[in-house]
Amino acid sequence: MKSPYLLISLIFFVSFAYLVSWGFTKLYIIKKSTHQKIWNVLLLITFLIVGILGLLLAAQVNYKWEIPYLDKIFNWHVNFGIAMAVISIYHFTRHWYYYMKLFKHEKNAITKNSQINNKNDKGNNIHKDNNSAKLQILLL
Questions:
Q1: What is the pTM of this model?
Q2: For an engineered disulfide with 53, which of 45, 58, 77, 82 has Cβ 3.0 to 4.6 Å away?
Q3: Please, are residues 87 and 71 in contact by the beta-carbon 8 Å criterion?
């Protein structure tokens, strides 16, 4: 029998723990870098658990393995996945500026490169296409 997933409980527990550790940084009980390390490690641990259990479940389906306590393993997989998703949201919000800067610079770099290529383009498209074709054949 499948037991219910701990969706609301995990969201509240992880959020509460995050707010407590963040509060400790504001009260100078722990350093901000320690707070970040704690949550990076928790994100890594939940990722590894979800990934390993997911591989185990996939192997069970593909190879018809008889794994005892399969329902319990699946339940753990989902619950750790919920915790990982909540931690990932906090991780993303902490690093959103990095992603914005990445996309902003990439857009500017593409625009600048296309302007440079248009100025320097004097019929050299044959070589570019030839190299592209060679790469595609090599990858096949």
A1: 0.70
A2: 77
A3: no
